[in-house]
Write a structure and sequence with these properties.
It is a single chain. Helices cover 48% and strands 18% of the residues. The chain is an alpha+beta fold. It has a three-stranded antiparallel beta sheet, with helices on one face. The protein has a three-stranded antiparallel beta sheet with strand order 4-5-8, with helices on one face. Strand 4 and strand 5 form a beta hairpin. The radius of gyration is 26 Å and the shape is elongated. The protein starts with a helix and ends with a helix. The relative contact order is 0.12. One of its GO terms (molecular function) is translation elongation factor activity.
Length: 306
């Protein structure tokens, strides 16, 4: 079965593979378009398997509220190099993942991979394989989170940090709420609080922190001989400082250090004539906790020249 240049172009549009790869696949498939697609998929699987061992710690974090489902999503997809994050095809894939999360609310990455990509005739796993083949790097969907209701998202540094904040409020549609919500999301991006409020700090974390503070006092010549109840009061005072640094609602608001985020929230709720409660937040920073690839450009260039 013969095939034309038009067939090659059509296969290329369907699979995003290179012209020569498409031509070879059509030749191998005797011009059968579906068979050629399968051949390229299998080739993609082999390429993906080969690349899977390579470190992917770059990429992008996307935080968005899906316009169709109104579900907020924050997702991190990793690549091997920073250049890929600027690749249109890569960004299309990240958006496709976010859209599929918003539509299906999967339990984890494995569940997401098995889902049909929204608007496409393939699963997320197949789409991932295709992108690995066309982009030529190992790509990984690392993690995601989603939230319903009143949600604000914020992306900082072109996808270096993504934040999603959930609110419980009756003033979401009032003018001024959106600016307030964006301020809270930006605060989280900039200051990186570990917890929402004092109640959110786990008891064991607090106990550990108190032990550290007691040890610091015990090692201080001026303080170690003070009465136990005084030392206890000092520990409580310093725990207050810990809350201020680590809990979002206790932190000084970045745009006005004279008030805390809690005070800014109360002030905004009063001004808008209703109530606002920050329910939860998620902050992803690209590549945090991942082993980074050691680059040695001199060696890379030497290899290329050889």
């Amino acid at each position: 079965m013969a095939f034309t240049a038009k067939d090659v172009q059509a296969l290329r549009e369907r699979t995003n593979c290179g012209m020569m790869d498409c031509k070879k696949a059509l030749t191998q498939a005797d011009g059968d378009m579906e068979k050629a697609v399968e051949i390229l998929r299998e080739k993609g699987l082999a390429a993906a398997t080969k690349k899977a061992g390579r470190i992917a710690a770059e990429g992008v974090v996307l935080a968005t509220v899906d316009p169709d489902t109104k579900v907020g999503v924050v997702i991190e997809v990793n690549s091997e190099t920073d250049f890929v994050a600027k690749n249109e095809s890569f960004m299309e894939f990240v958006k496709s993942c976010a859209k599929t999360v918003a539509a299906n609310k999967p339990a984890d990455v494995d569940a997401l991979l098995k889902l049909p990509a929204v608007g496409l005739s393939m699963t997320i796993e197949e789409e991932l394989r295709d992108k690995i083949l066309t982009i030529g790097e190992n790509l990984k969907i690392r993690r995601f989170a989603y939230a319903d209701g009143v949600v604000e998202t914020y992306v900082h540094g072109g996808g270096r940090i993504g934040v999603m904040v959930s609110f419980d409020t009756d003033v979401a549609d009032k003018e001024g709420f959106s600016a307030y919500a964006k301020d809270v999301a930006m605060q989280i991006a900039a200051i990186n609080p570990a917890y929402l409020d004092e109640d959110s700090v786990p008891a064991e974390v607090l106990a550990h922190e108190k032990e550290i503070l007691k040890a610091q006092i015990a090692n201080d010549e001026k303080l170690k001989n003070k009465p136990a109840q005084i030392i206890e009061k000092m520990v409580d005072g310093r725990i207050g400082k810990y809350y201020k640094e680590n809990c979002l609602m206790d932190q000084p608001f970045v745009k006005n250090g004279d008030q805390t985020v809690r005070q800014y929230t109360e002030e905004t709720a009063k001004a808008l004539g209703g109530s606002i409660k920050v329910k939860s937040f998620v902050r992803f920073e690209k590549g945090e906790g991942l082993e980074k690839r050691e680059e040695n450009f001199a060696e890379e260039i030497a290899k290329m020249v050889k």
